[in-house]
Amino acid sequence: MRAIWTGSIAFGLVNVPVKAYSAASDHDIDLHQVHDKDGGRIRYERRCEVCGKKITYQHIDKAYDTGEQTVVLTDEEMDALPSEKSREIDVVQFVPAEQIDPLTLERSYYLEPDSKSPKAYALLRRTLEQTELMAVVKFALRQKTRLGVLRVRDDVMVLQSMMWGDELREADFPAAHGAAKISPQELKMSAALVEQFTGDFDSSQFEDDYQNELRTLIDEKLKQGDALDTDATFGEAPAETESSGEVIDLMEALKRSIDSKRGGKAKAATRSKPAKDAEAEAATRSKPAKDAEAEDEDADSGSGGKKTAAKKEAATKGTKKSTATKTAAKNSSDEKTSTTKTTAKKTAQKKTETKKSAEKKPAAKKTAARKPAAKKGTTSSAKKSTETKRPRKSA
Fold this sequence. Notes:
395 residues, extended, alpha+beta
């Protein structure tokens, strides 16, 4: 950075040499004016209205017009003013920070110590920090005497220029002081909305949307030329609507604003759900294989089959005939499968018992005794299977 002013801070007999640097820079994109027909640059000329000649800066003086007479002031006369010659930031008072109206503050300047021994600079900085006060100062900069304050920011002293008392206009708006009736409920709702927006200020979270869009427009114009489609680049512009003059329902507007803000936070929380929770939900949605096998075993048992059939019959009541027929066919198929499995299971069990009994008793007697029983059991099972195959009439 380049220093724009060199001087010193003076309070009492203490003198602190400093250099001033502009604390802010303009981020706006520089644009110039051109002729719309041929793109020619529009330039402003300093031309004398008496002789008609173009005038350079070295031949330009300042003047004051009284209405009847013009007083011309040369650069030498302007530089001769005592205040202009002063290179001091004169401390006139120390005040609490809350007594300085932010509306009066103008440009800011960083102050760098300008001496081999910065002890006086450090002493004044530490004093301002410890006392939590601001120093009210007077100084001259660029042919103008200014009022300002000294404060500390990030271990660096900052000089901030201020408006003079007679430069700040009075706000005389009768409507602003009107006695509007505010209900306790409206005040409560308004406070709730304020709470939704409350947080710690961080200037890096905010951007100049206009300058960003202007940069995008310039980049796209460089790529596409006059064929640029602004609707494709930025989207269609919202239609302008005239004010209807309708009275706004303040309570309804406050309620919707609060609901909208809460809804936005809820969506953000849902989007930022941890991966573990997502995996747990996925595991819950997909049934484990063991649970599925256990359900299949329950369906294979006789009692489970009958209960399922009874539930299905109750659920199919009151539906269309085509749906009832399909349900009956499906139930019949399920029962057939269940009965077949049950019969096969019982037959296998009886064969095992027959084999065990044959080992204990003589083979001839056991075979003779068991053959009719096996035949009887087979006949009974076949009979049950036949009865089951008949489709049930749907209710």
